[in-house]
Structure formats: C-alpha cells, structure tokens
Write a structure and sequence with these properties.
By secondary structure, the protein is α+β, with helices and mostly antiparallel strands. Among the domains are: 90-102 and 162-248, no CATH class; 104-156, no CATH class. Helices cover 16% and strands 38% of the residues. The chain contains 3 helices and 6 strands; from the N terminus they run αββββββαα. It has helices spanning 7-30, 231-236, 240-248, and strands at residues 90-117, 143-174, 180-190, 193-203, 213-215, 220-230. A 6-stranded mixed beta sheet has the order 5-1-2-3-4-6.
Length: 251
C-alpha cells in the first residue's frame, strides 16, 4: 500500500490550501466596514446561461372594426375589463389559511364467550360413546370452549396552520365550460435558503374580483405548496441513512 508521506508533497499541499484560504479571507478582510456592492444593471439576454421563457399564449383574435361605432368585436364590456380572461393573463391569488383541528378519540372493547355441550342420556346409547370416541369419554362434558378478548385504543390530534401570502399566477388553460386553469410559482433566495411557493387549481371567471384577485377558497382542485430548499432545510431533515434505516428496520 502506497503511503502519502513525502514531506515535499505535503508541504506543497498545505501551501496551496493556505493560499486559497488567504485569497478568500483577504477579500472579506478588505471589505470590512463596507456595504456590499450592488450589481450593475445589464441586459439579461447577453448573460451566460440565459434561456428564453416559453409560456402559454392566448389564441390570436381577429378584431373587426366597424365604421362609425365605438364597439369592437374583442370587447366583453363597453369599458376596458382589467380582469384575467385569456391564456397567458396574470391573476393575483390571495392565500389566507388559518386552520386548526383538535380530535380526541378513545375506544374500549371487551368480549367474553363460553360454549359447552353434554349428552346425559340418549336411550342408553350414551354408554357406548367410547366405541366411536376416545375411551373414558365423559358424556356429561363432551365439549367446552371459551374465549375472552379486549381492546383499548386512544388517539389525539392537535394541528394548527397559518399561511398569509399573495402571489401572481398565470392562466394556462381555458376549459370547455369557461373555467380557467391557473398555475403560479415563486422562489426567493435569502442566505443560501430558497423558499418555494406554488399554486395550481381551477377557477371560475365570475369569482374574479374587479381588482383582478381571487381568494384561495374559491379555487377548485387547489394544490398549494409552501416549502424550501437549502442549508436550513437540510439541517431540519434527518440524514438519508437514518431515513432509510427507519424504513427497513422491522422493530
């Protein structure tokens, strides 16, 4: 087995590590007492790794303009309707969840059974039972069975959740009955921790307010996801080895 015991190699390795650490620490030391520099405003299209966004877009509409008329064929009302109505439009979802549930169940069950059979007399044939049954059979106590069972169970649930947030969602589909499918996703990165909020569901056009908002309780098939990714989330989760052990351990 080859051992890494060359003093020269060890020295060069330590020097390289110290140089890398010094460069990083030097930059931090030089910025002591200074506010972090703001990033320059640049064209995002010219940045490396830029990818254009592809989102659902509404179908093109042929607008017919009539002479001597203030009405247009693409209008829903006489005045401009600011509410979302087409694929690609944006709507604001108001999420205010304040749920609390408390359940306390207790169950007691007990059952006792006792069965017995005897043949005291049967025209004298009871004396000949030992011909078909084991010898020394007692005809006054041919069969006796008993069973006792009991069960006790108790369960308690105490849950409280509260989420208050507003987020924008896109209309991604118009259903044949006029209902609209929405999808929204937001991400916020703060100190190596990313917070993720998602909303999916089906809404009715008449439930949209004049301010182009809709409350979450009016969203059918609602799917609300609020979670995170990052260093803090990793610490709050058990290690994958422990999770695997909890799954496969039979006791």
């Amino acid at each position: 087995m080859r051992k890494f015991n060359d003093p020269v190699k060890i020295g060069f390795t330590l020097l390289a590590c110290c140089a890398l650490a010094a460069c990083s620490a030097g930059d931090r030391i030089a910025n002591i007492g200074k506010a972090p520099d703001m990033g320059a405003i640049t064209n995002p299209v010219t940045q490396a790794g830029y990818q254009p966004i592809s989102l659902p877009m509404p179908a093109p509409q042929n607008v017919v303009r009539q002479k001597n008329s203030l009405w247009q064929s693409d209008r829903v009302t006489f005045f401009k309707d600011q509410r979302a109505a087409n694929v690609g439009d944006i709507i604001t979802v108001m999420i205010e969840i304040d749920d609390k549930a408390e359940i306390d169940n207790q169950t007691d069950r007990s059952r006792t059974s006792d069965e017995g059979a005897a043949l005291d007399s049967l025209l004298g044939y009871e004396l000949a039972l030992d011909r078909v049954l084991p010898q020394a059979v007692n005809n006054t106590n041919l069969a006796q069975a008993g069973a006792t069972s009991s069960y006790q169970g108790a369960g308690t649930t105490d849950r409280e959740e509260k989420i208050e947030v507003m987020m924008a969602a896109l209309i991604t589909q118009i259903l044949p009955n006029g209902n609209m499918v929405i999808h929204g996703r937001q991400e916020a990165l703060v100190n190596f921790e990313k917070r993720i909020l998602e909303i999916d569901g089906v809404i009715r056009p008449e439930d949209i307010t004049t301010s182009n908002t809709i409350s979450y309780e009016k969203i059918a098939e609602a799917r609300i996801v609020y979670g995170g990714e990052g260093q803090i989330t990793d610490v709050q989760q058990p290690r994958y080895g422990q999770q695997l052990y909890d799954i496969i351990f039979p006791f």
